[in-house]
Give the backbone structure.
Amino acid sequence: MENMTAKIFYQSDCNLSLLDGKTIAIIGYGSQGHAHALNLKDSGCDVIVGLYEGSKSWAKAEAQGFKVYTAAEAAKRADIIMILINDEKQAAMYKKDIAPNLEAGNMLMFAHGFAIHFGQIVPPADVDVTMIAPKGPGHTVRSEYQAGKGVPCLVAVEQDATGKAKDLALAYALGIGGARAGVLETTFRTETETDLFGEQAVLCGGVCALMQAGFETLCEAGYDPRNAYFECIHEMKLIVDLIYQSGFEGMRYSISNTAEYGDYITGPKIVTEDTKKAMKKILSDIQDGTFAKDFLLDMSPAGGQAHFRAMRRKAAEHPAEVVGKEVRKLYSWSNEDKLINN
Ligand SMILES: NC(=O)C1=CN([C@@H]2O[C@H](COP(=O)(O)OP(=O)(O)OC[C@H]3O[C@@H](n4cnc5c(N)ncnc54)[C@H](OP(=O)(O)O)[C@@H]3O)[C@@H](O)[C@H]2O)C=CC1
Ligand SMILES: CC[C@](O)(C(C)=O)C(=O)O
Ligand SMILES: [Mg+2]
Ligand SMILES: [Mg+2]
């Protein structure tokens, strides 16, 4: 097992004043970008935003109080440059906009290790290269900060040219609220491999496939699709919320004995040794670069996102999506669809 003694840093380990006098450029204003920029601004930091001419987010970032520049101009003006654009676009943008404007002693930052770990970006030796990777979606990084809380983060230092890289990165983690929850020390490699594995096998790929298969099974057996949606999709959040609060044991305390008995009996029939075997293959494809190669190829100008777009279209047409729209209207307090339009 990996090092279980890796340090966790909290607010008292982080010195926000290390960011005094430093300009932070947030490149990208999407899920993570808007959250980091707004949280840092609310923490008193000097933040500018870098985008491309014609970006749909330019006016939004300005309306939310930021000076917005092209990525190249923002990089030139900044001491700390956080790259929060899509992983597959980072290498080309870095080469064109960031590299020519980097100065010795700058800090280049990432929220995910993909571009560095897979060698898409190779920064010069005289800059710090660090990562603060929130373990949660950008919109939650913002909403937790506003609630006085934070999303836990990973911190990693790839290059420490100034000798202060880790302390500066930790100050940044406090600025976005992550240190309120805890910041676990790791490496770019480990963050990249575990993050890709988690989102593919469990959080996004695994959970969505499980919910959809359950929904389909009930619908194919003739049950009302709205009932199937309640049972296999809607209620997932409520069960996961209990796990979030008190672990599996806490969740099982809240459910009936009938459900708990069925949980123990049936879980291993669904997630079998074959599922574990498939998980191991997924992990090995991530570790040896197979996934990164396939992803980058499809997302490249030559690939034209052919596979990505087809998969996205097919997923959007799933009957659960149609029923879901109707069911989600029932709970007017839900802001999920607002997120999609943000
Ligand atoms: N989504 C998440 O919650 C998490 C993401 N991460 C990591 O954070 C990073 C950002 O991901 P995410 O927030 O999902 O990205 P999004 O797709 O939500 O946003 C990308 C942003 O980058 C802008 N952009 C695209 N190309 C350029 C360019 N050439 N120059 C300047 N800006 C550009 C986009 O502009 P426009 O608005 O015009 O489209 C958009 O504002 C990735 O490394 C990801 O792995 C890490 C943890 C969680
Ligand atoms: C789970 C997906 C994620 O890794 C995240 C929100 O943490 C991502 O890349 O968006
Ligand atoms: Mg993640
Ligand atoms: Mg991820």
Q: What stands out?
A: The mean pLDDT is 96. The longest helix spans residues 225-254. DSSP finds 17 helices and nine strands in the chain.
